[in-house]
Amino acid sequence: MPDKLLLANMLFYGYHGALPEETVLGQRFSVSLEIECDMRPAAENDDLRLALNYAAVCKAVQSIVEGPPCKLLETVAERIAAAVLACGALSVRVTVKKLHPPLDLCMDFAGVEIERRQVSGARLS
Question: Of 22, 29, 44, 61, which has fewest CB within 10 angstroms of its CB?
């Protein structure tokens, strides 16, 4: 069973969406990550330098969600997955939720979930 780092329900304000008002008014987004990585070296040595630094991961996610607008949640999720893999993850499951979608009905959220893995032979940080 692989080691997993969980980062749940990070909240951000962004300007993503297909409708013009979404890119002007903005809205709240929630991002959750399930990151597969080898934690053994860091744990055995109690050494942050050997760990996947989740503070750096959170900062990368924040810069994407609070950064330039995308029309699709799928695009936001793909950018987040690429950034997490670049931080050294073996794989990542990304969930992006738009907490108040501009629909004329009541719902908790609209969201996407994707899972991506390191490409075979890719160098890990």
Answer: 44
Element (H, E) at 27: strand 27-36
Please report whether residue 38 resides in a domain: yes
Tens of pLDDT, residues 18-70: 999 999 999 999 999 999 999 999 999 999 999 999 999 999 999 999 999 99
SS3 content of the chain, % helix, strand, coil (to 5): 35, 30, 40
- Would you say residue 123 lies in a domain? no
Q: Would residue 55 count as lying in a domain?
A: yes
Among 124, 27, 6, CA closest to 69:
27
pTM higher than 0.85 for the full model? yes
Cite the active site residues: 98
Total domain count for the chain? 1
Q: Do β-strands 110-117 and 4-14 pair in parallel, antiparallel, or remain unpaired?
A: unpaired
In a domain, 122, yes or no: no
pLDDT in tens, 84-117: 999 999 999 999 999 999 888 999 999 999 999 9
